[in-house]
Design a protein that fits this description.
Helix content is about 60%, strand content about 15%. The chain is of the alpha+beta class. It starts with 6 loop residues before the first strand and ends with a helix.
């Protein structure tokens, strides 16, 4: 199955520990690259997430955005700085003695003093957090892959349509090619008759010149290889594995054969077909850049 490198997926999950939100997007890239953005305290999960994603994709730049929020206050504890609270009380008692004022202070006032009470998060178990992140990752990844598959089907249909057009152009060149030599022989014979006027044209010399031209302008081998490349292209489109690199290489080979045909053909009509082929190949190449 042909798969695109472009896709987007999102997943959410509310667990006993965390509210997890993840977005995954992928774009074209020559190789595979996974960029993960998540809260600093959870960086230990980064490599696990990366390995999980790379099991499913072989090409493309993938960006992952992970957000985690506490679902309860069970992860937080109130810490009392007893020494600091006692120091505040002693200081106020001493101040009351110096000023002669009465010491009238309650526990709430001491608790409101700076840094007496602190709210701290308890250490979290990454294994428990991973259990809540995993279903979100699976959902977001599945949505993204489904989008890549859907886009890939459209790309494959477009590529097949362009391949059929290239095969039609190949057929026209194949039909025209044998006529090029006979047309050249006729033109050369008429030209020699004009130049020599009353003298007889040397048929042996003419046959030699035509043979040299036929050998120089023969594109039979290129046409055979070109047809073979087209068949390979069609076969690769049916494969289930990653096909982007194979198709990209094959397009280069097809382009090489088309260029050779254009340089050897010595015929205006064939040159026209070659130019159409090159234009279509460029569109084909651009589309293949989107395939995984």
């Amino acid at each position: 199955m042909t798969r695109s490198m472009t896709g987007f997926g999102r997943g959410e999950y509310t667990g006993a520990i965390k509210q997890v939100t993840m977005e995954i997007k992928s774009v074209n890239h020559r190789y595979s690259e996974v960029i993960i953005r998540l809260p600093r305290q959870y960086t230990m999960l980064e490599e696990t997430i990366r390995r999980y994603i790379l099991k499913e994709i072989s090409r493309g730049r993938v960006e992952v955005y992970l957000k985690l929020e506490n679902t309860s206050t069970s992860q937080e504890q109130v810490q009392v700085d007893k020494d600091l609270a006692l120091a505040y009380y002693k200081a106020m008692k001493e101040l009351a003695a110096i000023t002669g004022a009465s010491l009238n202070i309650g526990i709430a006032e001491i608790a409101n003093m700076p840094s007496v009470l602190k709210i701290e998060e308890t250490d979290e178990n990454l294994d428990d957090i991973w259990k809540e992140v995993l279903p979100v990752l699976q959902k977001a990844l599945a949505v993204m892959l489904a989008m890549r598959d859907s886009e890939g089907e459209k790309l494959a249909a477009d590529l097949m349509e362009r391949l059929i057009y290239l095969q039609k152009l190949h057929k026209k060149i194949e039909e025209k090619s044998p006529l090029v030599v006979s047309q050249y022989r006729e033109k050369l014979h008429n030209r020699l008759k004009e130049l020599l006027e009353r003298e007889q044209v040397d048929e042996n010399r003419l046959a030699l010149e035509v043979a040299l031209f036929a050998d120089k302008s023969s594109i039979d081998e290129e046409l055979v290889r070109l047809l073979s490349h087209f068949n390979q292209f069609n076969d690769i489109l049916q494969e289930k594995a990653s096909t982007g690199r194979k198709l990209d290489f094959l397009i280069q080979e097809i382009n090489r054969e088309v260029n050779t045909i254009g340089s050897k053909a010595n015929d205006l009509e064939i040159t026209k077909y070659v130019l159409e082929m090159k234009s279509e190949l460029e569109k084909l190449r651009e589309q293949v850049q989107n395939i995984e």
